[in-house]
Design brief:
Elements (H helix, E strand, L loop, with lengths): L1 E5 L3 H9 L5 E3 L2 H5 L5 H12 L3 E4 L5 H12 L5 E6 L2 H12 L4 E6 L2 H9 L4 E4 L1 H6 L4 H15 L4 E4 L5 H10 L3 E4 L1 H6 L4 H19 L1
Parallel strand pairs: 1-2, 1-8, 2-3, 3-4, 4-5, 5-6, 6-7, 7-8
Helix pairs in contact: 1-3, 4-5, 6-8, 8-9
Bound molecules: erythose-4-phosphate (E4P).
The site of erythose-4-phosphate has 11 residues, from α7.
Length: 215
């Protein structure tokens, strides 16, 4: 399963890329709004750092606007994947941009029916938001299982990009369900490293080694 970092923060991306575990990145308008620099420059820098798929989202809500913004985003780098919000305009924009050779990530997906439509118009990625479903008392991970099964049944090429992840458990469950990618905030990726037995185990090894040197 691939791991993407879900942020527009260059310093955080640099730190994680250096670890060799980042396969791509996703951004959204809320994440970009937290940064001070021009979004285009940020996306270009993320592409150069990550050297893998980087999702940049349109903010238009009508078809023409989505196509205009999507075509402009696609000129930033060969690594850009244009992110469009799910809906009739997003689905149409996905179909058109895909036919022009631009890869599209259909975002804000909360049901298997929506994921089916995204696959039918050739989405490169579909982004179901598990954390936001959990927030309203639904089972976010159940949706991932449903989408993976539907895509397998019909051999759709769309990759399942699990979004709105909040914990290590989300990542492990997504991997067990056969999702293609998880996109995670930097803190969630850092959490994947942690286990108290690793820390205490290392401490014991080092203490034993030190004692042996004093013999
Ligand atoms: C995905 O591409 C989105 O940017 C993101 O995962 C949304 O996460 P949130 O629900 O924590 O805002």
């Amino acid at each position: 399963m691939k791991l993407f970092v879900d942020t527009g923060n260059i310093a955080d991306i640099k730190k994680l890329v250096a670890l060799g575990i980042v396969d791509g990145a996703t951004t959204n308008p809320s994440l970009m709004a937290k940064e001070t620099r021009n979004p285009r420059d940020i996306l270009k820098e993320i592409c150069d750092l990550v050297q893998g798929p980087v999702s940049g989202e349109v903010v238009a809500t009508d078809l023409d606007g989505m196509l205009r913004e999507g075509r402009e985003l696609a000129t930033i780098s060969e690594h850009i994947v244009v992110k469009v919000p799910f809906g009739p305009a997003g689905v149409q924009a996905c179909k058109t941009l895909t036919s022009e050779g631009t890869r599209v990530n259909v975002t804000l997906v909360f049901s298997a029916a929506q994921a089916l439509l995204a696959a039918k118009v050739g989405a490169y990625f579909v982004s179901p938001f598990v954390g936001r479903l959990d927030d309203i008392g639904a089972e976010g991970m159940e949706l991932i299982g449903d989408i993976v099964q539907i895509y397998e049944n019909y051999e759709f090429g769309t990759q399942v990009l699990v979004a709105s992840t909040r914990s290590t458990l989300h990542i492990v469950q997504a991997a067990k369900l056969g999702a293609d990618i998880c996109t995670c905030p930097p803190a969630v990726i850092e959490g994947l490293f942690k286990h108290p037995l690793t820390d205490s185990g290392l401490e014991r090894f080092l203490k034993d080694w030190e004692k042996a040197q004093q013999k």
